[in-house]
Amino acid sequence: MKPLRLLLALVYRELVWLRRFPGEILSGIAVSLFFAFAVVGLPASIGNINDVVARISESVGANLTLQEALLVALVSASMLNMVSGVISNVTQTLYFELATEEVISTILASTSIAKYVVALSMVKPLTITLVLTAYLLVVLVVFQGVSGLVTCFLLLPPLLLSAFCLGFLSAIIITALHYYAGIKRPWIVSGIIVPVILAGSGVFMSFELVPWYLRLIAQVTPVPYAVAAARMLIIAKGIEHFKTYMPILAVLYTVYYILAYSSVKVSERRVKRGW
Amino acid sequence: MPSAIVAESLVKRYRVRGGLRKTSFVEALRGVSFAVEKGTIHALLGPNGAGKTTTVKIVSTLLLPDGGDAYVLGYSVTKEPSKVREHIGVVLDVSRGFYGSLSGYENLVFYALLKGHSFSDAKREAKRVLELVGLEALKASNRPYFTYSLGMRARLALAKALLTNPEVLLLDEPTLGLDVESQNMVRELLVGLAKQGKTILVTGHNMHEIERISSHATIINKGVVVASGTPEELKRRLGLLYKLEMSVTGSNVKKFRDELQQALQLKHVVEVPAGSIHRLVFYVNATREEIVSVVFKLSKIYDVEVRDLKIEEPSLEDAYLAVVGAGHEAA
Q1: pTM of the prediction?
Q2: Crossing angle, helix A223-236 and helix A146-176, to 10 degrees?
Q3: Which secondary-structure segment (H or E) carries B144?
Q4: What is the mean pLDDT of residues A8-31?
Q5: Which residues contact B238 (CB under 8 A, 6 or more apart)?
Q6: Which whole number is the average pLDDT over A64-92?
Q7: Count of alpha carbons within 13 angstroms of residue A171, beta-carbon side
Q8: E-strand spans in B165-234?
Q9: Does B12 contact A17 at a Cβ distance shorter than 8 Å?
Q10: CA Rg value for chain B
């Protein structure tokens, strides 16, 4: 089967799914916007908005204006959306598919399970990320005019590379859980992984306040680098983030791709032997 | 007639993990061989755990055998699995395998795309198979899958197997849990497909259904083939010409039964005492006339009243029970 046909099938299914769940998409965006504005406007312990801006400036290591602080909060919220959306969706879909021989037999009729899993681990994060962070385009254009469009365009590569890595990571985890651990409720695991990655990535709080082991876990994921790249883009308004963080994200993408493909391939062989 | 599916000495062992470092093996198949002729419906029968599903999975390339090989239209399932997959449609579980929030039509378009169709072909193919299984007529093709009844799900599972118009269908208990109407629909559909030249390997427990639709059957028990052939051949080979059922009463029923057993060389006697009336079931290797003559002669000798006498040709179920119930382990 041509890889393009496989991608077409997956994109078709994603689009149908998205059409079926407009409420979920809108609520995801609304919660994310609420979170971002609440970070700047309504922190529980800080009364003065200038203090809020000062705290956010301190956490990112630069002097920010109110607008920039709000953008940092919005981008952080989009990261949150992306991480939780990608991990929960990829794990749930893959778990259902790997556990259902009907689906596996149809996948095998056209391609290998490994190729399918890798393709799904890219297509799903792509659609989830684009849909759940689309509001950034509107917000950036409102805040920055035409240059907001450019910022949004530059924000996409680190965001998408990061989403693909998380898709592969989800595939690795779900393959291990399904084929080796026999865990029946994988979404519980995804519910643990998401806050661990986010906590250690500096999305909620500055790195210094996060325990070293959480930082360590987060640092082998792409999220802290994507967060840093996005913040640098908003603060420096240039392509510096490409030079600094894109090589790291590219290496992580390659490593995760190889790990995901080979782990599914090994599991596929075991399953076929009835182990 | 050439064979569409050939299984040659299939062996399959499953690894079972006991505890720490303890691994044992369970032999699911111990040299299963059979052949399915082109354009026929071939039933694979056996009790739970006999190895039917393992056999279907091996033939559908989902599982590798530990020994032997199987061929679909001449292609080896171990050496040319992709060629095999091009020619088969598989149903392993009629109630699963679809995305709940997508409609039946959308599910099928997705699977058709996955099988390599272009978008327009996929849409056309999905409509064709939906009409074929009667889901278009039920106006269910655009409803989300999670709203489907089990009968509709079974139809959709068959529709998926029929995408790309495969020559061989492998169906694992396609009527399991279905209501009578849906079972009839599936049966009619399978018979119609066989008439069109498709080869169908089907497993199941409902012997009456299997007997109505299949031209050949293979009975597996404990991982080995215990009998194979047309239903008539199976019955003849097992010596099950007639099934004799009678209700008798009298003081010498036991002697009457023993004499009858000796005179007619009865096999597998089942006796159900119900008060003073005894219901006896025999499998008899004799002609109808001989049976009637001997029964009435002995009933007079032992003063036994025959209240009810029924002689019927044994069904496939009787053959199955005779083989599996008798604990046969080899053909």
Answers
A1: 0.80
A2: 170
A3: none
A4: 87
A5: B227, B319, B322, B323
A6: 86
A7: 31
A8: 168-172, 199-203, 216-221, 224-229
A9: no
A10: 24
Q: Please give the DSSP secondary-structure letter assigned to residue B23.
A: E
C-alpha angle A75-A76-A77 in degrees, rounded to nearest 5: 90
Q: What is the ipTM of this complex?
A: 0.84
Which pLDDT does position B331 carry in this prediction?
Answer: 42
The HSE-up count of residue A45 (CA atoms within 13 Å, CB side) is: 1
- Tell me which of A42-46, A111-115, A197-201 is least confident: A42-46
Query: At A64, is the secondary structure helix, strand, or coil?
Result: coil
Partner-chain residue, chosen from B15, B96, B101, that has the shortest CB–CB distance to A102: B96
- Average pLDDT over chain B reads 84
Closest by CA to B40, choosing from B182, B161, B215, B171, is: B215
Extract the tokens encoding A254. 């390659």
Query: Would you say A171 and A265 are in contact if contact means Cβ atoms under 8 Å apart?
Result: no
Residue A200's nearest CA partner among A211, A190, A191 is A211
| Whether A108 and B113 lie within 8 Å, measured CB to CB | no
- The closest alpha carbon to B253, from B287, B285, B276, belongs to B276
The Cα–Cα gap between B87 and A226 comes to: 46
Q: Which residue of A has its CA nearest to B91?
A: A102
Q: In what order do the strands lie in the sheet with B277-284?
A: B267-274, B277-284, B242-249, B305-312
Neighbours of B242 (CB within 10 A): 21
Helices within A61-112 (DSSP H only): 66-99, 101-108
CB B178 within 8 A of CB B94: yes
Instruction: Indicate yes or no: CB of A8 within 8 angstroms of CB of B119.
Output: yes
Tokens 């404990």 sit at which residue?
A: B222
**What is the distance between the alpha carbons of residues A250 and A254, in angstroms, rounded to a whole number?**
6
